[in-house]
Amino acid sequence: MPSRRAALALLALIVSPLARAGAAPEETLAVVVGRSSPVTAVTLDELRDIYLRRRRVWPDGRAAVPINLPPDSPWRDRFSRSVLGRAPVDLIGYWNARYFEGITPPLILGTPAAVRAYLVHQPEAIAYLPRSEVDDSLRVVLELRE
């Protein structure tokens, strides 16, 4: 029979990764567009306006298409808190009010791979990904660090 100390150490090994899984990752978030996008940089204020749909076009007149990860994604939570100043759940009322004005929330794609694929074919789109998920098909226009 294992000692109490060994049992506690084993429990810590099992629980520790589970506790970290829901926490916001520390890796840099990259705000990205596809290589074919005319967008080369974006400010934090512009990004906030695009994601809250206060600004819906790029300077060249094309529609700005913000992309979100799913609401339960720790990356989305981190992005929302740092850029929009609120958790995703706190934006439900905001989007309900915008709905009656004919304004829809950003498109949601389920995985970083889906985001990359979408950005490659949609030069109007902008998204955020963990820096480690950015490849040569994308251009980083802003980095968000803790």
Report on this structure:
With 146 residues, this protein is α/β, with parallel strands linked by helices. The protein has a single domain (25-144), classed as D-Maltodextrin-Binding Protein, domain 2, CATH 3.40.190. Helix content is 38%, strand content 17%. It has 5 helices and 5 strands. It has a 5-stranded mixed sheet with strand order 3-2-4-1-5. The longest helix has 18 residues, at 4-21. The chain is globular, with a radius of gyration of 18 Å.
Write a concise synopsis of the structure shown.
By secondary structure, this protein is an alpha/beta fold.
Residues in helix, %: 25-40%
Name of the top-level CATH class: Alpha Beta
CATH superfamily: Periplasmic binding protein-like II
CATH architecture: 3-Layer(aba) Sandwich
Average pLDDT taken over every residue: 86
Write down the Rg: 18 Å
User: Structural class per helix/strand content?
Assistant: alpha/beta
Distance between the termini: 44 Å
Which oligomeric form is depicted? single chain
Number of helices: 5
